[in-house]
Amino acid sequence: MGAGFAGIPLRELGLVILVAAAITYLTTGIIRTLMVRYGRLDEIRERDVHTMPKPRLGGVAMFSGFLGAVFLADQLPALTRGFMPITPEMNAVIWAGFVIVVVGALDDLFDLDAITKLVGQIVGAVTMSLLGLTWTILYIPFGGGTTLLIDQFQSTILTTLFTVTLINALNFVDGLDGLSAGVGMIAGAAILVFSLTILFDQNGAVSAYPPAIIAAALVGICAGFLPHNFEPSRIFMGDSGSMLIGLLLAAASTSASGKINMSLYGTVDMIALMSPIIVVVAAVAVPLLDLVMAVIRRVGRGASPFSPDKMHLHHRLLELGHSHRRVVLVLYMWVTVVAFGAVSF
Predict the structure, then answer these.
(1) Residue 319 CB burial class (10 angstroms; 0-12, 13-18, ≥19)
(2) Which of 21, 139, 185, 206 is the right S-S partner for 222, CB 3.0 to 4.6 Å?
(3) Spatial distance between the Cα atoms of 131 and 254, rounded to a whole number of angstroms
(4) What is d(CA 5, CA 21) in angstroms, rounded to the nearest whole number?
(5) How far does CA 193 lie from the centroid of its chain?
(6) Global pTM?
(7) pLDDT tens digit string along 194-226?
(8) Dihedral sign of CA atoms 49, 50, 51, 54 in order
(9) How many Å from the N-terminal Cα to the C-terminal Cα in the chain?
(10) Alpha-carbon distance 109 to 119, whole Å?
(11) Nearest residue to 242 via CA among 58, 32, 10
């Protein structure tokens, strides 16, 4: 059954990526046609870089690709360890994704206000945590290193904070054609490589299956969406898409690092314990930095942290005279260097 080397289901995970990409690619075309036919096009806002109205709602196509890929993974004997009844995590990520995509789709169609959207994001993150994809162990690297076992309440708060932050970081970076999808694909690939390393090191540890499956599906849906979205794009992923990418990155990294057992590593290998968090933080370092800078900038001039502006990293690179594509490729390169630097470390 395509076990790959040393029990790593490489072939199966490759199939998950392909199916996610194919379904997303085809569904995006269908959604775009429907949105254009019914005249649901995005109005040009002052902060936008694009100059022609285009449909949003690409996230719905991405979520359908994700569901298709996860359904396939559940049917493959080599990947069943990632699913119920062994682990509730895939179930949790599907329901959380559903909540996030519904909120994002409503925003794409009717422009929700920031608070409503934030409440929706929190509901999605809490859903994921309560259904079983949550931080259970927190490793504190200071003072000799301690591992905290955290209770359900603490873990729900931690998981929710982490998830909502990532959702917003990816939502912020979604300002240029192909940027969010590319960043999501690169970050997902970094977590996938990391999960494969754990599978290899621990001879197929059950805990490494869900993050590997989530990351593979994430790489697939981003790859399937990019042909429609790379400059000049024909459709935007909208908040339904960028928030979904943020949620899936949070899910994969929580799954990879929120439950590592000290006894597997011993106290010596602190870096190994911290590495999934380092990888994720590294992968989203560029959008996170942008998010932090934007909040400081807006609050500093007495505006709401949610008030949009044209001061994001990608806007500044455009102002320096780089072309649209070049800015996107430069940002891809930064993210790739940082994320894979962390993985190789």
Answers:
(1) exposed
(2) 185
(3) 13
(4) 24
(5) 15
(6) 0.89
(7) 888 888 877 777 788 999 999 999 999 999 999
(8) negative
(9) 32
(10) 18
(11) 58
